[in-house]
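writing this on my phone so excuse typos. first protein, seq and then structure
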Amino acid sequence: SLSAGDVVSLYVWVIVATIVGHIIIASIFAVRVKNAGYERDERDGDIERKGARNGFWIVSILINIIIFMLLMENMFGDAYRPSLGLSLTDTSHMFFALMTTMFLGDIVYRATMVLAYRRDAV
């Protein structure tokens, strides 16, 4: 089982990774806009909706996994060994799992947009 300190350090790592990812994605979009004399059109809306849909699916799947793991842990008690050492009955671990889920959903949202724009640029 991870200690509260381990969870905090892992959480900080996830935040830093998310910030770096956002910087990379923002840079890609800034270069695209600068180089193309770009005007927003209906494809931009479609790409954003696709990104939002993919992010939603990731969040939905991960929330269901978290629910399943929490139910198993409550049903079997000490006999159940949670994966990754995260006990979801511990408040700090549950917070970490939910916040990481939201970060991953956002990363998938942004990555989908980048990939869709790269396909359009080719």
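second protein below, same order as before
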Amino acid sequence: MNRGEIRDLCLYWLDDLQGAYFTPTQMNVFINNAQREVQKQLIQAFEDYYLKVVQTTTVANQADYILPQDFLKLRRLEIVLS
């Protein structure tokens, strides 16, 4: 489906078949914004799919720890005191 077909489909859904209310420029902005929102949701849905949980034990008076070589980002940190 190309942009023109998507724009026509959106105008059909909006009951503006002649494009009298929404201009093609406005429709392009709406379509681009919708695409960005869908992309964000897909990234969030599969964000943890390829990641694995890593645990380590803390040592008293040690401030620095070596991260795994394939470390991507810190998602959540939990400190268990007992």
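The CA atoms of residues 18 and 78 lie 57 Å apart. thats all i got for now
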